Amino acid sequence: MGNHILIIDDEKNYLLVLEAILEEEGYTVTALGDPAMAMTYLDESEVDVVITDMKMPGMTGQQVLETVRKRHPHVPVMIMTAFGTIDRAVEAMKSGAFDYITKPFSNDEILLSVGKAMKLSHAEQQNRLLRESLAEKFGKETIIGNSKPIQDVLTLAGKVAPTRSNVLVTGESGTGKELVARAIHITSDRKDMPFISVNCMSLNPGVLESELFGHEKGSFTGAMALKRGRFELAQGGTLFLDEIGELSQEMQVKLLRVLQERVIERVGGTETIAVDFRLVAATNKTLQEEIVAGRFREDLFYRLNVVNIHLPPLRERREDIPILASHFLRKFSLENNRQVQGFTPGAIDYLSAYEWPGNVRQLENVIERCVVLSNRDVIDVDDLPPELRDEEMQFKSAVDLLPLKVNLSETLEKIEAALIRRAMVHSGFVQVKTAELLDVSKSLLQYKLKKYKITAKT
């Protein structure tokens, strides 16, 4: 949390005295004599406490209070007033001022009041971050699925959550890596502190550095005010760095230093700031390959990869597809005020058979489309997008997921095993029905089941 105080007073002597007293105590102080200019500055800056004189030309302390309360209700406002206008200060207190100080004031008096106001400001900031974190958490989907792969993920996340270890979540795009990070956070002892998320691919390196480390006022063109970065905002909580494999070499070095020393310096600053956060990183890249290619630092990888949680693609947990589809159906029916009740068996078959290159995110988008465009109370095959209904497109989608260089024999066996597993899901794991779906004899199916170590009902 910061310690930035904005002082507003048209009497220059009081500005200078207050600035000196507060800076000596370690506060960051901005002193302005024009209240209108101060309000503009407040809108563009991160200020923790405002101290304003009551009687000023152009704008009174009461008007400053009302403006701050309206635009920045979490910032405590202290009123300074001459002895003869205490009654106006009392009225300001009734309007929401934190405290009032009479001129002339003693150093101890002002420091005691400022200290209390700063504690309140920090508490308000913490509560605001927590509310935002909770809003994000409950606005997102939870991890859904009964399959063994996803249950293994949840078990591992539950084991690592109470620890302080860094976690690297890997998996294809759309598998739900951020959901795992949030699950770790809300089941840890940091659950009441902020969850701060940053996508490393969405920002260029210069902007990303400022976003993570923050910057001092005037540190670069456009830096009109001090800004605290995500490392500071995650204080006591969890920092989630998505797409960590996209970090530039320079940013990798800086992140490694933060993880080793647990201190940062804002861009353009010299002050060393201690940080305490739990790091969860995620990537859809194979970082070991990036290391070999010289694009990712090996020492940073080992710092990140204390515990690795790999999220399986949706095609490897097909039994979860009907559960997820029903969940998204309820969600989007409610959001769009529709009365869609479910899926026909044929629609579920097509959903379960598709390869889902975009994983859970793609499934969610497909179900939303179905709910919005369907004019029936049950989603049928005709409501599904063409790519799910076209078998040739399905096969092409599956083949496109394979690397160009493959062992043909091994790959064909994997495809055969996958087709058998898919047919088993559709048949309710009954061998006779599975054999019919695959157009093979029961004895051949039993041979294949034994070969690929697949179990099924008789």
From TrEMBL:
Tell me where in this chain the Sigma-54 factor interaction domain is found. 143-372
| Any matching Pfam family | HTH_8
Q: Which UniProt keywords apply?
A: Activator, ATP-binding, Cytoplasm, DNA-binding, Nucleotide-binding, Phosphoprotein, Transcription, Transcription regulation, Two-component regulatory system
Q: Name one GO biological process term.
A: regulation of DNA-templated transcription
The record ties this protein, via InterPro entries, to: AAA+_ATPase, AAA_lid_NorR, CheY-like_superfamily, Homeodomain-like_sf, HTH_Fis, P-loop_NTPase, Sig_transdc_resp-reg_receiver, Sigma_54_int
Q: Name one GO molecular function term.
A: sequence-specific DNA binding
Q: Which residues form the Response regulatory domain?
A: 4-118
Q: Where in the cell is it found?
A: Cytoplasm
Question: What are the GO cellular component annotations?
Answer: cytoplasm
Q: Which residues carry this modification: 4-aspartylphosphate?
A: D53
Q: Which PANTHER family match?
A: TRANSCRIPTIONAL REGULATORY PROTEIN
Q: What is this protein called?
A: Two component, sigma54 specific, transcriptional regulator, Fis family
Organism classification, top ranks? Bacteria, Pseudomonadati, Thermodesulfobacteriota, Desulfovibrionia, Desulfovibrionales
